Amino acid sequence: IAAANGSPVSDALVERRPVCLDGRVGFVDTPVYDYSLLRAGHGIDGPAIVQVPTTTVVVPAGAAGVVDRLGNLVITTR
């Protein structure tokens, strides 16, 4: 896919909404991204949600996702 080339990941931000990903923490203001607007090299810090046409991807707190050149969202924990 196309490289980010300096375009900010915020270009793919759709909204922010309260999401409960951990019952011990409760609802947290969470960014929601449109996968089709992400580019290679974009990084997303969790917690975050990525909306894909066929699924929804959760990047949990303490993890980060980076879009590779093939369009995969590679999630790693810190």
Summarize the entry for a quick read.
The chain is an all-beta fold.
Q: What characteristic shape results from the CA principal axes?
A: globular
Count the E strands.
Answer: 7
Summarize model confidence as the mean pLDDT. Answer: 96
How far is it from the N-terminal to the C-terminal residue, by CA? 26 Å
Cα Rg = 12 Å
Which structural class fits the helix and strand makeup?
Answer: mainly beta
Low-confidence residue ranges: none
Instruction: Order the strands across the largest sheet as they lie in space.
Output: 1-2-4-5
Report the total helices.
Answer: 0
Fraction of helical residues: under 10%
Order of helices and strands: EEEEEEE
Strand content: over 45%
Main beta sheet strand tally, sense and closure? 4 strands, mixed
Folded structure, characterized:
This protein is an all-beta fold and 78 residues long. It is built from no helices and seven strands. β4 and β5 (55-59) form a beta hairpin. The protein is globular. The model has no long low-confidence stretch (mean pLDDT 96).
List the helices and strands and how they pair.
Blueprint: E1 13-20, E2 27-34, E3 43-45, E4 48-52, E5 55-59, E6 63-67, E7 73-77
